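ligand=oxa(dethia)-CoA
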Amino acid sequence: MSKITAAITAVGSYVPDYVLTNQILETMVDTNDEWITTRTGIKERRILKEPGKGTSFLAINAAQDLLSKSGVDPKDIDLVLVATATPDMKAAATAPYTATEIGATNAFAFDLEAACSSFLYGMSVASSYIESGRYKKVLLIGADKNSSFINYKDRATCIIFGDGAGAVLFEPNEEGFGVQDELLRCDGSGREFLRAQYGGSSYPITEETFNEGSHYVFQDGKTVFKNAVSNMADVAEQVVKRNNLTNSDVDWLVAHQANKRIIDATAHRINLEDEKVMMNIQKYGNTTSATLPLLLSDYESQLKKGDNLIFAAFGGGFTWGALYYKWAYNS
Ligand code: UT7
């Protein structure tokens, strides 16, 4: 019997309607469209404005998009994984609620958090369950409502992040398509450079820290940038080399959308032409766990069975990695 690999068989996505443009940000903080565009590549991002709606709202909509496009019966799903850095609540996981709302009544569900690498790590977890033969249908959703912990008075962060969600279904494949290889890493000494410190168990929110805004995301952009460029490019290059791929073998780079300059540096390291680099940062900004599935959703119609994809991500923690994937279907 041939080896079972784990392949994506369906994709879905959701972004909120409200568009926060660079021009609107110019009226909120001391910034300008030219600076944001040249330093990051971002033109606009989506924000979930409705009160009481959290990450699960984004996740449910992305999953429902996948289900309606694919015709998959939610009752057949074994596991719902929600990769997120912004769960609905501190003490009830977002995934079980999401699973129930989409009708995945026979599934178990849990959240997975590794900042901007959450979805990439989630691909590793989802594919392992499939490869082991233990489960047949794993729904992996990357969803983040970043606007819930961004300070819209801090120009170092508010220009970068947006809200959104993407979903993929992993199923067994006997033709060798799907996940081929992965290289995942972390370095906990990096956590001080990108964090939302207060509100967790080490540092509960007090009136003083609340007034200081210490529950919002803080980023030392320069340090994160340097680490992202070198680490993401390093692992992408290693995965390409150890699978004996040349640049002409690689059809697409699917890289976390944090900064166009970081994505370009990774593409450059593996000698990829711009046409092979998936890019939608201009529309959505950095949606944390949602960037990779939103790319797949936007580019799905251009993907062909057998295409070689290199996924790469870097995020807070620090966490990072790269994954070699063979696309399994023509849409
Ligand atoms: O997804 C998780 C991983 N996250 C990332 O990968 C993000 C990594 N970091 C970055 O993408 C970049 O560091 C930023 C986009 C956050 C910042 O870009 P930068 O080129 O590193 O800018 P900088 O922080 O070095 O600031 C350069 C200048 C400074 O002015 P001076 O000191 O040169 O006069 C800043 O005060 O730009 C100024 N500046 C701004 N100006 C206009 C910083 N933020 C802004 C802003 N608008 N929003």
